[in-house]
Amino acid sequence: MGNKKEKAEKERIKRLEAFDNYYSAIYNERYLSLKAALLKDNESVSFSENLTNEYFLDRASILVASLLPLKQGDRVLDMCAAPGGKTLVMLSRMNGEITLTANDRSRDRKQRLDEVIKSHTPLSWHEKINTTCYDASTWGLHEKEAYDAILLDAPCSSERHVIKSEKHLAMWSPSRPKRLAIEQYALLASAFDAVKKGGYILYSTCSINPEEDEKVIEKLLKRKAGLFDIVDINLEFSEERMYGRIILPDTANNLGPLYACLIRKRDE
């Protein structure tokens, strides 16, 4: 038993060293302050405007979910919605006056999403809310140019969880961001097919990795050149990236991390 624990501890240290080396190569000297911030607990805030019960989430999530342009009567898709905090923010902003599909590919997470929506929103909103459980990377094949606005809060490395959780650290490797970036682009390309001309996509992650953030946008720019524009966003506490903006906890009062980029599909 002792040897097994010792072996597991050596593996944990090895993975953590690999993680540190990987992100040190990206952030250089800044990584020390960024790591220290990631190790701290970020404080959740209460959000309850127009809701039936308060919901607690990172303030950065509220800020980012408020970036997607919405108007009354819009048909909106939240592609990777669970646990549902950003979904609630969008519904709250419009006081339920949108038709919203909230999706998550995991049945367990979708069940949690259902519970969050039902327990935090007025009954009168429910007929305009649909929750689904699909692989969103194929969404654009089935509903082309069907949505006025799409939120894609993509699955990501979520380094804050990795650095604090043995379970998440055991799943991490230097090749994982590359695999995730492929999945993230597939989701973004699907969202691009599903959004109407003139419509908006808000792409976001809670990753600090450029491979999963602006480089996913860069790939879309290369493959869909001339078909969309990147829209400037005013995101409090954020700093500029090549495309989009990011909130990093070492300079944002421990908010985030959260990356966001808003794109608009051209009319022609």
Describe the structure.
The protein is of the alpha/beta class. Helices cover 41% and strands 21% of the residues. It is built from 10 helices and 11 strands. The chain has helices spanning 2-27, 30-39, 59-65, 85-93, 107-120, 139-142, 159-164, 166-171, 176-194, 214-223, and strands at 44-47, 55-58, 75-78, 99-103, 129-132, 147-153, 195-205, 228-231, 239-240, 245-247, 258-265. The strands form 2 sheets. Strands 3, 4, 5, 6, 7, 8, 9, 10 and 11 form a 9-stranded mixed β-sheet that branches. Helix 3 crosses helix 4 and helix 9 (176-194) packs across helix 10. The chain is globular, with a radius of gyration of 19 Å.
Give the beta-strand count: 11
Strand residue content: 15-25%
- Mean pLDDT comes to 95
Largest sheet: 9 strands, mixed
Structural class: alpha/beta
What's the SSE pattern?
Answer: HHEEHEHEHEHEHHHEHEEEE
Q: End-to-end span in angstroms?
A: 66 Å
Shape: globular
Q: Whole-number radius of gyration?
A: 19 Å
Number of helices: 10
Task: Offer a few descriptive terms.
globular; alpha/beta; single chain; 9-stranded mixed β-sheet; two-stranded antiparallel sheet; 268 residues
